[in-house]
Amino acid sequence: MGRHNIHFVSSAAIDREGQNLFCEMKCLTFTYSQYVERICCSLPFFVWWISFLQCANCTLSACNDLFLQVFRPGKIQVQLDQLEQELVEQGRANAKLLSSLRELKEKLLQARNDTQGQPPKDAPVIAVLLFACNRVTVKRPIDQLLQYRPSKHQFPIIVSQDCNHGLTTKAILDYGDQLTLIKQPDQSDIPLVGKEKKFKGYYKIARHYGWALNKVFFELNYDTVIIVEDDLELSIDFFEYFLALYPVLKSDPTLFCISAWNDNGKTGLVGDDPELLHRSDFFPGLGWMLTKDLWLEIHHNWPKSFWDDWIRQPEQRKDRACIRPEVSRTKTFGKIGVSNGLFFEKHLKFIQLNKKFVPFTSKDLNYLKKDNYDVAFVKEVYGSPTITLNQLLKGNLETKGAIRITYGSKDHFKTIAKKLAIMDDFKSGVPRTGYRGVVSVVYKGRRVYVAPPADWKGYNKSWS
Questions:
Q1: Both 98 and 247 in a single domain?
Q2: Are residues 388 and 445 in the same domain?
Q3: What is the pLDDT of residues 45-65, one digit of tens each?
Q4: How big is the CA angle at 219 (ends 214 and 222), to the nearest 5 degrees?
Q5: Where in the cell does this protein reside (predicted)?
Q6: Residue 364 CB partners (closer than 8 Å, separation 6+)
Q7: What is the pLDDT of residues 279-321, one digit of tens each?
Q8: C-alpha count within 13 angstroms, C-beta hemisphere, residue 201
Q9: Who contacts 275 (Cβ-Cβ below 8 Å, separation ≥6)?
Q10: Which among 112, 186, 371, 402 could disulfide-bond with 447, CB atoms 3.0 to 4.6 Å apart, if both were Cys?
Q11: Helix 60-71 × helix 73-115 angle, to 10°
């Protein structure tokens, strides 16, 4: 038989292919059988095998010898065993290294958490006192407090619970050491007679407030407290707002609180200016900051009910004011409560909550101090053109800036307030949000000052 014109593929080429696949196998951890299968499926192998079969001079014995020479299965097995051992040892080393890295990561995270938001040594510590009773939705304001607070050291959270409601207690305890839970111990009934019975809830609230503020100021020994309730939603710059106004409160004796709330803060009644802040003679509440000095002054006469109206009385206010925002930094979502939801449906649910972060701590807020504020305020209000209510409602106005509507009596103010959809009630003669008798609102995009005459002599206590 004549020799065919055949091109043989050298064993060296096959060996190189095997070595390449062996390197791949080291990366992919192939088994021996997978390795041989990979070689057998390679193109050089088939070329060689076809050529081999066409060789008339090849015997079966020579075929076997050549196959063993090319593939050297014994040598490959040794290499595989060696590689397997190396992989086992490498796996152990990797596991040990991974364990060390995880341990180091945990230590770094713990160290970062311990120092996260650590305030400067001279920065104030302001406790947040959250009042809770039987709403498991207390988780909502707690979640926001934890989300927005810049430092757990500077703003420790204390939840004071009344009512002994088990599910609410559990919801609070779920937060662990992120907050402190204190419980009002006096759960005795409050005996009331006649019409007062329907106000029992307000009596319990006053009792709870008095106990908790004594606890925080006198036992836990905090100097300043921000009060929030279990049905409040918070603005993104809630802490920034209070932190920036803390030095203003401490340095101006004509102030007694900082509030996050605008009683006339409904959508459409406020300007598109979240940076705008006001002084107010009307105590707003609903997210407010007070100092230990104020508590030392008023705690001996703490009322048995309606504590917020009591604070608004001249005997407690003493001609002092609060700071309030144009756009509220809190909003209540508690439809069901001691007010039976009526006030919520008519008013509270329409309050606009600020959604923009304002860097108040980088701004000069000294303009809010009385000596600076009053001069600019009187000039702005009484420098604005005077119009009648009918002119405003008709919209026939030549001026584009702020305007003023003058009221001369309680009933006159109420008429104006109802037309402008603002709060029309008084407490000891002070209208809601009023400062020096002036209520500042926005009506159809225009700033309106509902103001007493320029020769205003002070609040008439009979207007209540």
A1: no
A2: yes
A3: 544 444 554 554 555 555 556
A4: 85
A5: Cytoplasm, Perinuclear region; Golgi apparatus membrane
A6: none
A7: 999 999 999 999 999 999 999 999 999 999 999 999 999 999 9
A8: 8
A9: 358, 360, 363
A10: 402
A11: 20
At CA 110, angle to CA 105 and CA 114, rounded to 5? 150
CA distances from residue 326 to 15, 219, 347 in whole angstroms, order as listed? 82, 35, 17
At 56 the pLDDT is 45
The one-letter amino acid code at 240 reads E
Q: What percent of the chain has pLDDT over 90?
A: 69
- Name the residue range of residue 438's domain: 373-464
Cα distances (Å, whole numbers) of residue 6 to 2, 12, 47, 48, 52 = 12, 18, 11, 10, 9
Of 323, 324, 319, the closest CA to residue 250 belongs to 323
Where the chain has pLDDT below 50, the residues are 1-15, 17-18, 21-36, 38-43, 46-50, 53, 56
**Residue 121 included in any domain:** no
β-strand pairing of 446-451 with 126-132: unpaired
Percent of the chain with pLDDT over 70: 79
Six token digits for residue 98: 């991974």
- Specify the DSSP class assigned to residue 441: E
What integer pLDDT is reported at residue 95 of this predicted model? 83
| Cβ neighbourhood burial of 142 (10 Å; 0-12, 13-18, 19+) | buried
> Do 164 and 264 belong together in one domain?
yes
- The 3-class secondary structure across 394-434, one letter per residue, is HCCCCCCCCEEEECCCHHHHHHHHHHHCCCCCEECCEECCC
Q: Are residues 141 and 234 in the same domain?
A: yes
Residues 423 and 279 in one domain: no
User: Does a structural domain hold residue 395?
Assistant: yes
Looking at the structure, do residues 104 and 130 belong to the same domain, yes or no?
no
Q: How far apart are CA 360 and CA 243, in angstroms?
A: 8
List, by residue number, the catalytic residues: 308
Q: Are residues 408 and 327 in the same domain?
A: no
Per-residue pLDDT at 127: 99
CATH code of the domain covering residue 288: 3.90.550.10
Q: What are phi and psi of 316, to 5 degrees?
A: -95, -40
Token couple for 235: 């603005």
Answer yes or no: do 241 and 379 share one domain.
no
